[in-house]
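hey can u run this one w/ magnesium ion bound, need the structure tokens asap thx
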Amino acid sequence: MRGWQEGLVLAHLGQGIAVESSGQVYLCQTRRQLDTVAVGDRVMWIHSAPDQGRIEQILPRSSILARPARNETIKPVAANIDTVYVVLAGAPPCDFLLIDQYLAVCEHWKIKAGLILNKIDLPLTAETEQELVYYRELGYPLLRVSSHLGIGLGELKLALKNQTSIFTGQSGVGKSSLTNALLPDMALKTNTLSKTSKHGRHTTTAATLYHLPDGGDLIDSPGVAIFGLAGLNEHELAQGYKEFIPFIGQCRFNDCRHANDKDCAVRSAVEQGQISASRYQRFLKLKQKMLP
Ligand SMILES: Nc1nc2c(ncn2[C@@H]2O[C@H](COP(=O)(O)OP(=O)(O)O)[C@@H](O)[C@H]2O)c(=O)[nH]1
Ligand SMILES: [Mg+2]
Ligand SMILES: [Zn+2]
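ok here u go:
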């Protein structure tokens, strides 16, 4: 179309959407009836004023993370993410239920997932070490870093290159510290934001896309709702435990729920040590949590 240009959505601002195009940022509105635009979306847009424009089209997405919205619908928040990194640490104690939940959501949306163990200056319990071994055996890469000591940051920067990533993880594991270490200018921005929020004006849960100085993009998303189980059903949760997949088809009943069901192949695999019992127990707990 005439005058259409390609752009990248950086953030939702109060007055519009920040779209980067040919190295400049434009404040854009969306054409009527366009689907919800997500941070990380590639869009076609058209000039409407010198620094402003209108988004005409959302280009096809390679992946999408969404949050629950009204009427059991979901709203896209972050698009075209290549890898989700789940950040964990020796302290606060690892919430493996939450980690499994994040991983299941990644499996569901077909986004690669990796683990970042931060605070390697702190000791780990034997249980945590064992769980990390399981995750690695499942194929989830693990990076060991300390944002305080600056250990492993070079490897992390390399891993983040040439792709779009997002950090998630429980509060207090060091996501902001890591983001600040990767994006030195962020410290300023976070301060300004929290100052404003003190006055109750800024209650943003909005995601923002940043270009990393050494290459790659990082989406900073304070909201963890996008990793909720809202978009998944029980069946999809089971498939989110990727080691279950080879067994799921072998259960006696097609509608097996992999709990106390007769001749459940998943449960037998647990009993025979082919599937980690702790992962299976957490699957049962998450399933319970999903009940309305
Ligand atoms: N010991 C240690 N503490 C860290 C490290 N990185 C961050 N922290 C601390 O962990 C706490 C939580 O960090 P923060 O970045 O706010 O975590 P977030 O809630 O995941 O964003 C802060 O007190 C940090 O100073 C680290 O490498 N080692
Ligand atoms: Mg934080
Ligand atoms: Zn089963």
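The mean pLDDT is 90. anyway lmk if its weird
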